[in-house]
Amino acid sequence: MSLVEVLPLAIVMIAGPQILSPIFIATSEQWRSNSTAYIFGASLSISLVVVIAYLLGNRLGGGGGSLLGPRGQDILYVVVLGLLFYAAVETYRTRDVSEPPAWMGKLTSATPQFSFRLGFLLLGFFPTDIVTSVSVGTFLAANGDPITDATGFILLTLFILALPSLSLFVFGKRAEAALPKVRDWMNDNSWIISEAVIVLFVVLTLQNLLG
Fold it and tell me: Alpha-carbon torsion 75, 80, 85, 87, what sign?
């Protein structure tokens, strides 16, 4: 069940510059290699953060040998709720950013090395992303689920990040003309979807905590 529960958080992961960046990269001269490098960097950092959070959560709150004692599982759920509250506040606080950062304009001339670093840093260490990845790892540990249940969350995140380049590969010029409109819509509305997903995950976490 946890595999399904954590999937919606992929939407929170890609909201903001995380999805805007691959849209800009899709218009670069080396868009194939740049997109691949960006997604590869993202895959490494997301996996790293989720696994570390899972291992720490499993050690602190998993089973009778946990460092937090018999209430360790409940404490982990409270930690997850705190992280989600921070993510919700941060998402709402940055909702009015109407224009992408100036550095994104440079992505049209990006190199694969730069794209890799950008994917690694944005998806691994951007405030809302690191909080979301830690929430996933901690939630799975609190539930006593295997770390493999995070696979769907990671793959769905990467698939959404790959959509700009995939659409360009499949639809060519039509996708190239549509991407700016998609970028503007995501920039204006993605925070609303993110907040809805966070609220949903809060409800699921509370059910586990109180159940």
Answer: positive
Amino acid 156 reads L
DSSP classification of residue 98: -
Phi, psi angles (nearest 5°) of residue 67: -70, -20
Higher pLDDT, 56 or 65: 56
- Count CA atoms closer than 13 A to 134's CA, side-chain side: 19
Per-residue pLDDT of 117-170, as tens digits, reads 999 999 998 888 999 999 999 999 888 889 999 999 999 999 999 999 999 888
- Please state, in angstroms and as integers, the Cα–Cα distance from residue 67 to each residue in 58, 60, 63, 75, 87, following that order: 9, 5, 9, 11, 26
Structural domain count, the chain: 1
Specify whether the CB–CB gap between 37 and 204 falls below 8 A.
no
* Domain of 85, in residue numbers: 2-210
CA distance 71 to 53: 18
CB 107 within 8 A of CB 29: no
Q: What are phi and psi of 87, to 5 degrees?
A: -60, -40
CA atoms within 13 A of residue 207's CA, in its CB half-sphere:
8
**Count helices and strands in the chain by DSSP H and E runs:** 9, 0
Q: Which two tokens stand for residue 10?
A: 């992929």
Q: Are the beta carbons of 140 and 2 closer than 8 angstroms?
A: yes
